[in-house]
Structures are given as C-alpha cells and as structure tokens.
Amino acid sequence: MLADRIQITEEKLLSDNWYILKRFTFNYLGKNGQWTTQQREAYDRGNGATILLHNPQADTVILTRQFRLPTFVNGNPTGMLIEACAGLLDDEHPDDAIRRETEEETGYRIQSVQKVMEAYMSPGSVTEKLFFYLAHYTADTERVAGGGIDEEEIDILELPLSQAMDMVARGDIMDGKTIMLLQYLRLQQLTNSLN
Known about the structure:
Blueprint: E1 6-15, E2 20-29, E3 35-44, E4 48-55, E5 60-67, H1 69-73, E6 80-83, E7 85-88, H2 94-106, E8 114-120, E9 129-136, E10 155-160, H3 161-170, H4 176-194
Parallel strand pairs: 4-9
Antiparallel strand pairs: 1-2, 2-3, 4-5, 4-7, 5-6, 5-10, 8-9
C-alpha cells in the first residue's frame, strides 16, 4: 500500500495570510526499496466547484471574465481571464456551493445541477480538488444582479458554444477548468448526435 511508503516527519506552517501554505518533510520508500527524505510545499485553499451553464436551444454558454493577479504576473498583459463560474465550497456540499456561486457570479438561480467529474487541478503544489458541473439555463431562468460579491468585479458573458470553442483554439480562453467543461459539453453533443 502506497500510504505505508510515506512517513511525514515534519509539518511547518509557512503562511496563513490568505490560505494555508505548509512545508512538509517526509520519508519516502522508493520502488528500489530505499528510503529518501524529501521536502515539498503544499498550498491549501480548500476544495472548490465549477459549473458551465448551457442553453441547449440556443447552444450558448455563460462564462465570466475577471482580473486574476497570478495570470498578470505570469505574462497575461491585462490579467483578465475568461472562466466558467467557480468558487470555494466554504464547508458546503459541492452541489449547494455551486448553486450559491452561480447566483453570486452570474445572477442565474439554477435548481438542477449535473456533476460530471472531480479533478485535482495542480496536484504538484495545491491540495484543491474541484467538482465539475453542468446545468441548463433558458431565457426564462430567474436572474438577479450577479457580478460577484465584496470586491469581485465579474463580467458575465453569453457566447455561442462554437465561439467559445474557437476562443479556446485561439488562446483567448486559457483557464483549465473552463477548457475541460467546454470540451466535455462538446464531446457530449457529438456523442448524442451519433446516437
């Protein structure tokens, strides 16, 4: 069992300014039968959920656009990123958290969500696991203001799915979770058209 090959010997808090950053020292039993001592840092920001809203009649999707500092300091000239709606669970069940986030960010009040997968997005350094969802909306879906809470400034975009896929191909959409959801939806459409 792999857990028997790992012994954490030290856990040191490096920062709890925004979320929790720790350095772990651990012994690891390699496949060669030798123990080595290693150190890694892990950033714990909690688990999250993300959702792609899709209008099947119009074949449109709802995305968001907001400033993301890490992308700005890594070469994104405006820091603006187009994304699927997402947020942290904050001790809620993922289904409830994503409905809350959808209303806060997009303004859409959705009742029924379909979980499609779970994934670790950056497992080399971040503990977060994301829960991925799809949901339908229509022109009649109840809406409130949206645009985020507190200091969030979120633009809401309604785009044809084909345009969103073109934006992925051009590099205008570069967010991993969004690309995964768009591709999942497109693959579902292609599979359904073949049946």
